[in-house]
Specification:
single chain; alpha/beta; ten-stranded parallel β-sheet; 31% helix; 24% strand; elongated; disordered N terminus
Length: 690
C-alpha cells in the first residue's frame, strides 16, 4: 500500500514538471506553471488536491512542512468553483430539467468550464505525460481518486429517457457504475417506457450504466462537487477529445496531452468562440465523420482477418485493407492540420458562401465607367478640393459618370471592371465583408488616419480580393472578429499602398496563385501572423512596418507539390516587436535528417557543436550584413539567418526546428535587402517542421 502511494505521488509530481508553450493568455500561462502537492502527500491529500485548495487557516494538522502548506495554498485545481474557505457547494445549479410538469431534480452546472480549467485538469490530474496506450490506465487512476465510491444520487440521462438512480458501486476500468432506481421513481421519457422496462434494462446490463451518462444531482453541502466535476471532465474528454483511433498509432512514444489533447481543446474553444470560419468547421466535422467510418471499416476487416488467422488472407482482402489504411492515414493527417492553429488554413478552404456567390461583373455593356464617391457628410471646401484633385481628371472623358454612396460596401458592390472608388475622410462602420471581384481602384481622399473603415461584422474575413488587378491606397482598416484575416487575396493581384491595417485576430493572407504588392503600409495587432504567404503565391513587401503580431511574416511551404514555391520580395521593411518570430517558414518534416540543395550538391543540415558555434554568432553582425553589403553578401547573410531554425514549440514529438542552409537557392526569395529586425520574441528567423 505504501509503495502504491509513493508511485501515485511520483506520478503527480512528474505532472507538475510539464511545460506547455504557446499559452497566449497570461492566465493560462500562470496556471500551467503552478505546482501540485509534493511527494510527501498521501493518497487522500492527492485526491483532495484534485479540486480543492488546502487552507492552513482552518487549523488542521498536516504531515507536510510549512513550506509545502504555503505552496498548497497557491495551488489551483483547474477550476475555481471549489474553495475550502466557503462552506457548501461552489458550483451553480442547472435548472434545465425544471418545468411545470417535471418531476426531475436539478443537477450541477458543469458544462460551462473555461479553457484553462479543462486544460489544467487534463494536464495536471487526469492525463499528465501519458502515452496514447496509457490513457485508459491514467484515467482509471484519476477516477479512483476523485469519485465518491458509492451512495450518491445521479440523473441517468440518455437520448431516450432521464431517470434518477443511486450509485452503489463503481467499475472504474469499464467506466461504469452499479446503480439502482430510486423510489418513488422520478423520470422523463421521449417515448412510452414503464418502470418494468427500466428494471428489465438494468437487469440486462447487470445494473451497470456508463459513467458518462450520469449527472450528479445538485447538493448544497459541497460533498459531491468533486464528483460532479470529475464526471464532467470524463464526459467532455470522450466526447470532444478522444478519438477511437488514437491508441492505434504505431508511434506510441509521445506525450498524448501535448500532441492531441491541447490542440483539440484549443480548437473546440476556437469554434465555440467563433474564431474558426464556418466552412472550415464544416470541413472538420465532415473529416471526423469520414475518418470514423473508415476506421470502422478497417477494424472490421482486420477483425475478420484475425478470426481466420489459420487461413492465408486472400489478395483482395489485403489490397482492400491497404487502401483503407491509406485513406485512414490521409484523414488523420488532414484532421491534424486543422487542429494545429499554425496549419489550420492549409486545406482548400473556399471561403464563405457569400464570397463564392460574388462573381466578376466585367465591363458595362455601355462601356461607361463610374467614379463612386463614398461620404456620409461633406462640405463645399472638401467637395471643391475633390473636384479639382480627382474628379475632373478622372471624368475628363464623356464615358465616365459619378455616383455617391454612404458606405464603402455599397460602393464596391456597385462596381464594374475599371471603376474607381474614392472614400472621403470619416469613419465608416461596415456590418458585412467587402468582396472585390473586379479590377477596380479604391483610394482614400486624405491620410490613412482620416479615412477609416471599421469592421463590426463577426464573419470569416474583412476584405477579400479576387480581382485581376485591384489597387487600394490611403485607407485605415480596423478589424474586429474577422476570423480568416483582415485582408485575404484569394486570386488575382492586389496592390496596396500607404494603408494602415489594425488587426485583432489574423492579418493579411496571400493564397496560392494570388499576388500581393504591399508598399509603405503599417500592419499590427494580429494574434496570428501579420502576413501569411501560401505556396504558389507571389508576395512583394516593400517599406512596410509589421509589428506586435504573433509572427511577422509566415511562409507556408507544405501544401501540394503542384502549387510550387512562393515567390517573395522583402525590401526595406521594419519587422519588430513580434511575440515569436520576425519571419518563419513552415515545412513538412518526417523526422529524418533534412538536406538542402545548394549549387547542385547536397549538404546535410548543421548539427551538434557546429550549431552551437553558429548560434553564438551575434545577430547584429547578420543584420548589418543584410543592410550594408552587396547583393551577393545579402544572399549569404540571409542564408546564414535561416540557419537559425529555432524551436517553435515544446512539442518535440509533433514538430522540430532544425538549421536550414541556403534557402535562397530554392527561389523562395526574389530579393531580400535593407530590412530591419528588432526585438522579436523568439528571434528574427525560424523554421517549423511539422
Amino acid at each position: 500500500m505504501e509503495q502504491e502511494t509513493l508511485e501515485a505521488a511520483c506520478i503527480v509530481s512528474d505532472m507538475s514538471d510539464m511545460v506547455v508553450v504557446e499559452l497566449h493568455s497570461a492566465v493560462k500561462a500562470k496556471e500551467a506553471e503552478e505546482g501540485l502537492p509534493g511527494a510527501g502527500c498521501n493518497s487522500l491529500d492527492i485526491a483532495k488536491a484534485l479540486f480543492q485548495n488546502e487552507n492552513n487557516e482552518n487549523g488542521e494538522d498536516h504531515d507536510d512542512d510549512d513550506d509545502d502548506d504555503d505552496d498548497d495554498d497557491d495551488d489551483d485545481s483547474g477550476t475555481d468553483y471549489v474553495n475550502s474557505e466557503k462552506s457548501g457547494t461552489q458550483l451553480q445549479r442547472c435548472e434545465r430539467h425544471r418545468g411545470e410538469s417535471s418531476s426531475l431534480p436539478d443537477t450541477f452546472q458543469t458544462s460551462n468550464l473555461l479553457f484553462y480549467e479543462r486544460f489544467k485538469a487534463y494536464q495536471d490530474y487526469m492525463l499528465g505525460d501519458c502515452k496514447p496506450s496509457e490513457v485508459k490506465a491514467f484515467t482509471a487512476d484519476y477516477l479512483e481518486k476523485a469519485l465518491e465510491p458509492c451512495d450518491w444520487l445521479a440523473l441517468w440521462s440518455t437520448d431516450v429517457f432521464d431517470v434518477v438512480v443511486e450509485v452503489q458501486d463503481l467499475d472504474i476500468n469499464d467506466l461504469k457504475a452499479h446503480v439502482k432506481l430510486v423510489q418513488p421513481l422520478q423520470y422523463e421519457t421521449r417515448c412510452e417506457i414503464t418502470e418494468e422496462d427500466f428494471n428489465s434494462l438494468l437487469e440486462a446490463t447487470q445494473h451497470k450504466v456508463p459513467l458518462m451518462e450520469l449527472q450528479v444531482l445538485y447538493n448544497e453541502s459541497g460533498d459531491f462537487d468533486q464528483t460532479a466535476l470529475t464526471l464532467e471532465h470524463l464526459r467532455f474528454f470522450y466526447k470532444h477529445i478522444w478519438r477511437q483511433w488514437d491508441e492505434e498509432d504505431e508511434d506510441d512514444d509521445f506525450d498524448y496531452f501535448v500532441r492531441c489533447v491541447e490542440p483539440r481543446l484549443r480548437l473546440y474553444y476556437d469554434i465555440l468562440e467563433d474564431r474558426v470560419p464556418a466552412g472550415l468547421v464544416a470541413e472538420y466535422q465532415s473529416l471526423l465523420q469520414s475518418c470514423s467510418q473508415c476506421f470502422q471499416q478497417f477494424s472490421e476487416l482486420r477483425s475478420g482477418l484475425n478470426a481466420d488467422s489459420d487461413l492465408e488472407p486472400d489478395n483482395v482482402s489485403m489490397v482492400e485493407g491497404l487502401k483503407l489504411y491509406d485513406q485512414l492515414e490521409t484523414f488523420k493527417r488532414k484532421l491534424h492540420i486543422i487542429e494545429n492553429p499554425l496549419l489550420r488554413y492549409v486545406l482548400a478552404y473556399k471561403g464563405s458562401s457569400r464570397q463564392q456567390c460574388v462573381q466578376s461583373r466585367g465591363l458595362r455593356e455601355s462601356g461607361m465607367k463610374v467614379v463612386h464617391v463614398v461620404t456620409a457628410v461633406t462640405n463645399t471646401i472638401q467637395l471643391q478640393s475633390l473636384l479639382t484633385a480627382r474628379l475632373i481628371p478622372l471624368c475628363a472623358a464623356e464615358d465616365t459618370e459619378i455616383q455617391f454612396h454612404r458606405d464603402p460596401v455599397s460602393a464596391v458592390d456597385a462596381c464594374h471592371q475599371g471603376d474607381t472608388v474614392i472614400v472621403l475622410p470619416g469613419t465608416y462602420s461596415v456590418s458585412s465583408s467587402i468582396f472585390i471581384p473586379d479590377s477596380i481602384t479604391i483610394e482614400g481622399f486624405g491620410f490613412p488616419d482620416e479615412v477609416v473603415i471599421e469592421n463590426q461584422y463577426k464573419g470569416d474575413s474583412f476584405v477579400e480580393s479576387t480581382g485581376a488587378d485591384v489597387s487600394v491606397s490611403n485607407i485605415k482598416f480596423i478589424q474586429h472578429d474577422a476570423i480568416e484575416g483582415i485582408l485575404c487575396v484569394r486570386e488575382g493581384t492586389l496592390n496596396m499602398e500607404n494603408c494602415v491595417l489594425q488587426c485583432e485576430t489574423t492579418g493579411v493572407i496571400v493564397r496560392g496563385s494570388a499576388r500581393l504588392t504591399m508598399n509603405m503600409c503599417d500592419l499590427y495587432g494580429s494574434k496570428g501572423a501579420g502576413v501569411e504567404i501560401y505556396p504558389g503565391s507571389v508576395c512583394s513587401l516593400v517599406s512596410n512596418g509589421i509589428h506586435h503580431c504573433k509572427d511577422g511574416v509566415l511562409i507556408k511551404d507544405f501544401a501540394n507539390e503542384l502549387d510550387g514555391m512562393p515567390s517573395i520580395t522583402l525590401e526595406r521593411n521594419v519587422i519588430h516587436n513580434n511575440w515569436d518570430y520576425g519571419v518563419i517558414l513552415v515545412k513538412p518534416g518526417n523526422g529524418e535528417e533534412q538536406h538542402i540543395h545548394a549549387g547542385g550538391s547536397e549538404e546535410p543540415a548543421l548539427h551538434g557543436a557546429e550549431d552551437k558555434q553558429q548560434e553564438a554568432e551575434p545577430a547584429s553582425r547578420l543584420e548589418s550584413a543584410g543592410t550594408d553589403s552587396t547583393d551577393g553578401d545579402v544572399a549569404a547573410a540571409v542564408g546564414r539567418k535561416w540557419q537559425f531554425g529555432r524551436q517553435l514549440s515544446r512539442n518535440k514529438e509533433a514538430s522540430c526546428s532544425r538549421p536550414v542552409q541556403d534557402l535562397m537557392q530554392h527561389q523562395i526569395f526574389v530579393s531580400v535587402q535593407d530590412n530591419q529586425f528588432k526585438r522579436n520574441g523568439k528571434g528574427d528567423f525560424g523554421v517549423f517542421f511539422y
